[in-house]
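[step 3/7] inverse_fold.run input=structure_tokens len=287
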């Protein structure tokens, strides 16, 4: 796969905390933003960078590259209490090279700059293989995530829009991805963020069969083929699990995840207050 080619910046040394501090000082006196991966400028929406991300998605879409926000960004949109750092922008796998070339061409080089790839291997992730960019002058970073790695068919009919216009996977598409990839953590968070019911899943999801173990094995291989680094995939290690059982095990235990900080007379899930509207129906600085 083309996105697994060596990142041209991957041979650079990881920046130390001291060097990062020096870079911040440099940015403060020189706003050219050509050397450091750090910038002192505040991203849009009080630092969340939501409108900056919207600009990126619009630039991609204007050139025939459909995209949607996945990972923590999607969890936040659907009500999970997560803290997002870099934005994860999913694009069709076959269009990764086109997107990278676009963002490194005029006039987009005046807006965006490619930076060092993520220097660490993370469980369940090939994040260190993704192309990483930042918006010039501000603390706004984003990855281009190949759709194959999140098991999503990245086409506009699978998207929904936030009130600001940001594209996200539709709820059933996002949850199906969690089931197919055996991502129990994301599945738990999106269930508790949306408070969907067991019946909703029966009506809107494919609960027949098991998670996609072959996909997990191929993801591990892609990681191994990239400089010897590989992604641990829970779906491959755990083997085949019934998607219906996964769904039932988490949707039936929402109340069990409430602790003493979330009294049952106030909270209906760990992220939802009783009577609160669906989070994606409210204007938000974060989505």
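[step 3/7] decode complete -> sequence:
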């Amino acid at each position: 796969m083309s996105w697994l080619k060596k990142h041209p910046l991957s041979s650079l040394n990881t920046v130390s905390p001291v060097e990062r501090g020096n870079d911040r000082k440099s940015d403060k006196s020189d706003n050219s933003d050509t050397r450091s991966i750090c910038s002192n400028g505040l991203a849009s929406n009080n630092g969340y960078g939501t409108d900056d991300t919207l600009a990126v998605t619009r630039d991609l879409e204007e050139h025939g590259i459909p995209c949607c926000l996945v990972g923590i960004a999607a969890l936040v949109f659907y009500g999970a209490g997560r803290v997002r750092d870099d934005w994860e922008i999913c694009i069709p796998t076959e269009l990764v090279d086109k997107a990278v070339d676009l963002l490194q061409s005029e006039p987009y080089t005046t807006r965006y700059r490619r930076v060092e790839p993520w220097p660490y291997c993370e469980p369940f992730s090939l994040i260190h293989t993704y192309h990483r960019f930042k918006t010039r002058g501000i603390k706004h970073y984003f990855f281009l995530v190949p759709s194959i790695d999140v098991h999503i068919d990245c086409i506009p009919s699978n998207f929904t829009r936030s009130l600001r216009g940001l594209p996200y996977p539709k709820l059933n598409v996002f949850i199906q991805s969690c089931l197919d990839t055996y991502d129990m953590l994301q599945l738990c968070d999106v269930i508790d963020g949306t408070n969907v019911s067991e019946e909703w899943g029966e009506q809107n999801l494919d609960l027949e069969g098991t998670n996609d173990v072959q996909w997990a094995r191929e993801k591990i291989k892609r990681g191994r083929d990239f400089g010897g680094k590989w992604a641990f995939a829970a779906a491959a290690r755990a083997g085949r699990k019934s998607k219906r059982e996964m769904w039932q095990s988490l949707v039936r235990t929402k109340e069990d995840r409430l602790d003493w900080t979330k009294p049952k007379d106030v909270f209906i899930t760990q992220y939802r207050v009783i009577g609160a509207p669906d989070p994606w129906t409210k204007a938000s600085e974060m989505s």
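[step 4/7] annotate
Residues 5-35 have pLDDT under 50 and may be disordered.
Strands lie at 68-70, 87-91, 112-114, 131-135, 141-146, 159-161, 167-169.
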